[in-house]
Amino acid sequence: MSCWKNKKSNTWTFPTLILCLYGFFCMMKPSEPFLTPYLTGPDKNLTIDEVTNQVFPVWTYSYLALLVPVFLITDYVRYKPILLLQGISFIVTWLLLLFAHGLLAMQVVEFFYGMVTATEVAYYAYIYSVVSADHYQRVTSYCRSITLVAATLAAVLGQLLVSLADVSYFHLNAITLASVSLAFVCSLLLPMPQKSMFFHRKGISETLPQPDRVVAGLGSNTSSSCQGDKDCTAADTGPTPAQQAQQPEPQHHVLRVLVQLGKDLKDCYSSRKLLYWSLWWALATAGFNQVVNYIQVLWDFRAPSHSSAVYNGAVEAVATFVSSVTSFMVAYMKMNWDLLGELALGIFSTMDAVSLFLMHFTTNIWVCYASYLIFKASYMLLITIATFQIAVNLSMERYALMFGLNNFVALVIQTILTVVAVDSKGLGLDIVTQFLIYGSYFSVIAGIFLIRSICMLVSRKCNRKTVRFCKEPQNLTEHESKERTVTGCATRL
């Protein structure tokens, strides 16, 4: 019986299925592409300036304030409580969005939505704590795919309901509330993990593994079969008194883990390659989140929702689909990313900058839509490449650390952009001028990586020519070889 119990608890299909259902219902939000028209319409009756300069910035501030503590607490409490917290935050957000009124109430909505986004880390981290390393690639694919499918279906459904059935934005939000409520029910069904990546590591040393030891470390966490009732019983009873005596006290263990996290971060960022890819990640993600957060405001400015047909849902559906295709293409690109990766960052960041400048200068809503599609597809392509380049030589734990810190740095940069350009207490720029700022911002990113990639290519070319010219012939004496090398190199230089 104990063997059967252990085997049942180690299966990966049930938690993967429930987590995919949770992700599907979380992303099934047909009202999301129409948030700005809803807030500025008769339901909430806010002005476009209030939404831009006083409501939306609250999300950025709350996200920043909650990200670090949630990131650490998520691992400490083993993920499921944070998923429950995210489900509750979803429900509170849409209850307030449906039934609360006034500027302050909508700012509270943005605070709770900041809680939702800060707790997203638990979604992908959870599955790694309940399945074996052999299934990581498969379950990650399932979890990511289901969210993309749900987001696309939600956008299509929202657009069809608005355009064909004349459903109000209020009822779209009611549908979203029902969906996120189902997501919360799914989170209740998830089994509680017995381990986590940092604070509750079983069967391995307390220090984080090196990249070449991650597979062995993860493999030791899950037994493939039971050798007998005696072994299973011993596994269920926990550590012996002698082992318990050797375990550190909880407060010392937490401190030791935090110190080790700091050392691992230092080791990761000591690699110049990882440092530059992380730099692009942080800079580009900050700009991308800022654009996505305010793109509906620009669309509403170019084609006011109270007097024009709104196609936000259709645009978001196409953008999600195109982004999925471009991300999928990365797996089949045969390129030397070590040599050409930063050049790709520079080229596609230039495309992002051009798209944003088009959004600023054009008055045609369809050009705005098309520019957004190009912008989002380019970013998704690059973030997929950056993710692969950072994760390829790192253990899961170290990748999680870099992922968390890169997103935190991105959020800090985004907060600076919000305070300076958007917030009414800062410059409080109008939405059109903001997109001029964002285009200039991505131009700087493109310039950094284009200049660096060109310099790197020129340097490598010169090094190869110098080495080939200065190569010593085999038939010369040692003295003649040195003289030939010095003379040739001097002439070349």
What key phrases describe this protein's structure?
20 helices; single chain
Would you write up a description of this structure?
With 493 residues, the chain is an all-alpha fold. It is built from 20 helices and no strands. The termini are far apart. Pfam families: Folate_carrier (PF01770). InterPro entries: Folate_carrier, MFS_trans_sf.
Helix content: over 70%
Please tally the helical runs, counting DSSP H or I stretches of 4 or more residues. Answer: 20
Strand content: under 5%
What's the alpha carbon Rg, rounded to whole Å?
A: 26 Å
Question: Which stretches are low in confidence, meaning pLDDT under 50 for 5 or more residues running?
Answer: 4-9, 203-248, 483-493
Query: Quick one: how many beta strands?
Result: 0
Shape: globular
Mean pLDDT, as a whole number? 80
Order of helices and strands: HHHHHHHHHHHHHHHHHHHH
Family: Belongs to the reduced folate carrier (RFC) transporter (TC 2.A.48) family.
GO molecular function: thiamine transmembrane transporter activity
Biased composition (Low complexity): 234-249
Keywords: Membrane, Transmembrane, Transmembrane helix, Transport
List the topology elements:
Elements: H1 2-10, H2 13-27, H3 35-40, H4 48-76, H5 80-99, H6 103-118, H7 121-128, H8 136-163, H9 169-189, H10 214-219, H11 229-237, H12 241-246, H13 250-269, H14 272-302, H15 312-329, H16 337-361, H17 365-391, H18 396-422, H19 431-469, H20 478-492
Helix pairs in contact: 2-8, 2-9, 4-6, 4-14, 4-18, 5-6, 5-9, 8-15, 14-16, 14-17, 14-18, 14-19, 15-17, 16-17, 16-19
